Structures are given as structure tokens and as C-alpha cells.
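Page 37, continued from 36.
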């Protein structure tokens, strides 16, 4: 018996192929393995979600199919980001379950909570939602860019958005990563933060890509009992 979830998996796989720039039915078969069933392709074609060429060698998502797949991918990658940010690890089965229980309003709420991340923890792009188009710093968000922090305020880095490889390598060289506890020391003429007893200097562009917890209470160093 063919279930809706089976069809959804095909749409999700085709989205991944779209990101990779391939439209080959052979690649789809390879990715799906034993799950590949030509009957599902026929159903998706009849529903107007995919297009096959006459030789059945090329397959692509239609506009409607892309809209459906986009929501699955967005939900999955936001779920991964939420788990990584809050729990420090990712449960792939849980992320897969979440994408199939998708409610756009809940997905947008999670996106807002996370301050509209552009990439998942694996570095893959998170499709933009309507909430992202009207974003700024939202009062409902628990995460904000470092640029919104106050001088002498300590916080923990939740995640870092990288615009490109150049910026990735530049930020990596600063030794600031997810989970780092930092203290903002100054904004001008450059940003300076304290991290692991070192002062790190960078510009506004990088500061705007570092997202931190808005409300963070540092744990005081334990006081050793006198012997």
C-alpha cells in the first residue's frame, strides 16, 4: 500500500537532487535504492508534482512539487537546528518525523525563535519562509545577533551563519564556535569579545552573523571548600 509519506520522501529526494544540479532518473534510483518504485513516479506525475521527459530519463519537480518539497526540507533543517541549538546534538529520526507532521505556522514560530537561521548544522541552506521576509530582531526570538548585545554582557553562541567560504574560514580562524561563552567588550572601531581568556577582534559583518542567546546567565565558578 502506497502511503503519502512514501510520496513525500520522493519529493524530498528530488529537492536534494535539485540542490546538486542533477535531474537523472538513474540518480534518483541510486539514492532511493530498494525504495524506488516507478508507480510512485506515475502518481507524482499524475498529481502534477513532477515532470518526466518522454524517455523517462530526466525528472524534475514542478512549481507545485517544489512548494511541497520546500516545506519538508525547511521543516527538517529547522528541526535539526533547534535540536543542535538547544540539546547540542541531532536526532535524524526525530527530524524526519517532524517534517511529516508539518504545520507551517509552527515551522515559522520555530524559525522566529531561532532568529531565522540560513543554514542547518550541516551547512545546508534552510529555505526562507514568510516570517524571514519580515524579520528583523523579533521580540519573540530567544536568539539575537551579537550586534544586539550590551557592552560587558556575557552570552553563549548558539550558531553562526556563514555567507560564503571566505567568511567561514575567517570566522574559523577566530576560534569562536557554537557553544562558546563570550563577553562583549566593545563595538567601535571594531567588535572585541572575550572568549576563553582571550580578546578577539572582528568587524560588524562578522558580528551580525554570530547569533547568541538573548537571556543567558553565566554559571559562577564553584567555590572550593577550604581543607
Amino acid at each position: 500500500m502506497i502511503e503519502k509519506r512514501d510520496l513525500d520522501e520522493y519529493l524530498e529526494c528530488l529537492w536534494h537532487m535539485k540542490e546538486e544540479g542533477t535531474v537523472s532518473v538513474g540518480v534518483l534510483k541510486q539514492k532511493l535504492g530498494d525504495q524506488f518504485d516507478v508507480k510512485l513516479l506515475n502518481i507524482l506525475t499524475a498529481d502534477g508534482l513532477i515532470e518526466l521527459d518522454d524517455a523517462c530519463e530526466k525528472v524534475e519537480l514542478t512549481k507545485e512539487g517544489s512548494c511541497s518539497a520546500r516545506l519538508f526540507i525547511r521543516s527538517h533543517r529547522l528541526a535539526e537546528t533547534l535540536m543542535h541549538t538547544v540539546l547540542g546534538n541531532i536526532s535524524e529520526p526525530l527530524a524526519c518525523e517532524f517534517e511529516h507532521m508539518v504545520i507551517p505556522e509552527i515551522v515559522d514560530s520555530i524559525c522566529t525563535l531561532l532568529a531565522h537561521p540560513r543554514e542547518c548544522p550541516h551547512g545546508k541552506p534552510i529555505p526562507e519562509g514568510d516570517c524571514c521576509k519580515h524579520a528583523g530582531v523579533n521580540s519573540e526570538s530567544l536568539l539575537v545577533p551579537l550586534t544586539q548585545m550590551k557592552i560587558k554582557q556575557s552570552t553563549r553562541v548558539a550558531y553562526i551563519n556563514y555567507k560564503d567560504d571566505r567568511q567561514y574560514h575567517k570566522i574559523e580562524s577566530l576560534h569562536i564556535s557554537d557553544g562558546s561563552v563570550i563577553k562583549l567588550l566593545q563595538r567601535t572601531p571594531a567588535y572585541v569579545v572575550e572568549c576563553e581568556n582571550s580578546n578577539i577582534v572582528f568587524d560588524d559583518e562578522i558580528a551580525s552573523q554570530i547569533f547568541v542567546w538573548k537571556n543567558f546567565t553565566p554559571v559562577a565558578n564553584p567555590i572550593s571548600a577550604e581543607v
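The chain has a mean pLDDT of 85. Flag for discussion at group meeting. The chain has three domains: 4-61, 74-133, 143-213.
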